[in-house]
Amino acid sequence: EIVLTQSPGTLSLSPGERATLSCRASQSVSSSYLAWYQQKPGQAPRLLIYGTSSRATGIPDRFSGSGSGTDFTLTISRLAPEDFAVYYCQQYGSSPITFGGGTKVEIK
Amino acid sequence: QVHLVQSGAEVGKPGASVKVSCRPSGYTFTDYYIHWVRQAPGQGLEWMAWINPNTGGTNYAQKFQGRVTMSTDTSISTAYMELSRLRSDDTAIYFCARGVVTHGHDYWGRGTLVTVSS
After folding, report:
1. How far is residue A20's CA from residue B70's CA, in Å, rounded to a whole number?
2. Per-residue b/e over A61-71, b at no fewer than 16 CB within 10 Å?
């Protein structure tokens, strides 16, 4: 099983600032099968990024993904008020599908 | 527009079973896998299994093998997840999600709260 470790656990930032979220895998993940999701309280997760760097339909271009092998990054270039949420990485190329533990982006 | 509508909240006793449904709309039901993901209170996301509505093929996370059964009824475009031998730590929100090989899970249901309580 591929274990995904996200850091930091919590990120305290102000609107307009840049957010950099990390996802590290216990073994190599195909770049084609790494995704990021956003989840707000009381809501289902929402797909942001798939295939490491492709934005899902309707996702603003302030969200970007990068990485390869075992190290992946989600960057939010300028935080909007609606971006404060929990973010999860996921690998879906190897069974079982696994998620990271999440990074909470909170308002400073 | 794609939607996945899930059944309502359930309460089950320890040792009993619950069955949650998921009815997608806005696309051809048999064209995409359905995945189930759960989230315990205040915790992260945990993938459970997928089913291929076209073939009935399934893949379960080892943790749930023998306790979870996925099924579909293609006549009403509905997928089901049945969890048996309930334990208190099965209390969680259970989400269904559409699976795309290249995209992960692109559409999700709103979730079904399953509470295990005697």
Report:
1. 37
2. eebbbebeeee
With CA atoms as reference, report the closest residue to B60 among B69, A30, B52.
Answer: B69
Partners of residue A43 in chain B, C-beta under 8 Å: 110
The predicted structure's pLDDT at residue A7: 94
Question: What's the pLDDT score for residue A30?
Answer: 85
Q: Is the pLDDT of residue A67 over 80?
A: yes
Pick the residue from chain B with its C-alpha nearest to A59.
Answer: B106
Which among B61, B105, B109 has the least Cβ separation from residue A47? B105
Round to whole Å and give the CA distance between A75 and A9.
Answer: 15
* Tens digit of each residue's pLDDT (9 = 90 or more) over A5-61: 999 999 999 999 999 999 999 999 987 899 999 999 999 999 999 999 999 999 999
Kindly tell me the burial class for residue A72, based on how many C-beta atoms sit within 10 Å of its own C-beta (0-12, 13-18, 19 or more): buried
B40 touches chain A (CB under 8 A): no
Place of tokens 């935080």: A79
Residues of A in contact with B105 (CB under 8 A): 35, 37, 45, 47, 90, 92
> In whole angstroms, what is the distance from residue A59 CA to residue A72 CA?
19
